[in-house]
Amino acid sequence: MTADALIYHPTVSHYLRFVATTVGRDKLLRTLQYFSRFYAWYLFRTNSPPRVIAPFEAIKKQFGLTRKALRLGKNVEHFKAAAVAMDDTKNRDEFLRYCAVGRQLGYAVYLTLDIATYVDAAGIWKLNSAKRLQKEAYRAWLVGLMFNTIAGMYTLWGLRQREQEIDKADGEGVVESKKLQRERASTNLQLISDLCDLTIPGSALGYANLDDGIVGLAGTVSSLIAVWGTWKKTA
Known about the structure:
mainly alpha; globular; single chain
């Protein structure tokens, strides 16, 4: 009876739906990858022996490579999303529309270059320009993240303006106010995720002098936010 209750529990069914998605598996691997990056740094700083650090360095490297494989072909999705955003002139604020195009193109270029770096890292075809391509990939990712961060700040400003115009004494105004609060909470969460992610390409490109501890923690936080978002979508 206990086994049946566990196997048929709704949470187990939800988990299976979650891991059935490529995004769900990717975000779980990403969480483990960046936590391992942080923990390997922590162990190194506390003078732990190499044999203790090695498993976490391996997780960081191997899970990163696995995630590159999972992302193969995803660049097409972002190129299409950029085209759709550009054509969406009716239902989107003009500024947010251009931010969406910039974000999607940044991600698309990043993932396109990521294919080349995967081929090299996996030992399929060694490229002399692999390091340069990885830098350009990080630069494209940084651009995409910056567009999304700016869009998030602009959205928060817009929500604040709309909230000031609401008459909370009116029933419809109360409903609208609660709707705006949910939108603000969602936007804030995404903004935190983007700011955390900015540390990764920013550090890799030398724009910010951050150690693996900070980058690992920031990556873990943004990964957990993404896991939570994907978990809710598969409910």
